[in-house]
Description:
Blueprint: E1 6-9, H1 16-22, E2 26-32, E3 36-40, E4 46-50, E5 55-56, E6 68-70, H2 72-78, E7 87-91, E8 94-100, E9 106-112
Parallel strand pairs: 2-9
Antiparallel strand pairs: 1-2, 3-4, 3-6, 4-5, 7-8, 8-9
Amino acid sequence: MNNSRVHCWGNSDVGTEIERQFGNLTMLNLVAGEPHACGLTRSGDLVCKGSNGQQRNGSSSRHAEKTEFFSLSELLAVTSNFSLENKIGSGSFGSVYKGKLPDGREVAIKKRRNR
């Protein structure tokens, strides 16, 4: 997978299984594709905007003012470059890594496999 070209996707239900297994983690998903800006709203919705500025995956623009955006370099930093020490699970679609944001929030980041 080319880590320089990823985008995030999700909805308010993303992370339910991770939370059940690992506690109060926020789930972020990475998939291969065109560069997109992604962010997590305070309500837990993941909002992504493409390079053309269009919002993706049905996320509501009502959360736009509360959206936090993460670059790939930030996600690499909080997961120690997706290190094996931070890997908390894997499945047929990819692996899940734990990380801690600079403000102390713990996150789980799913890095999807190419199909």
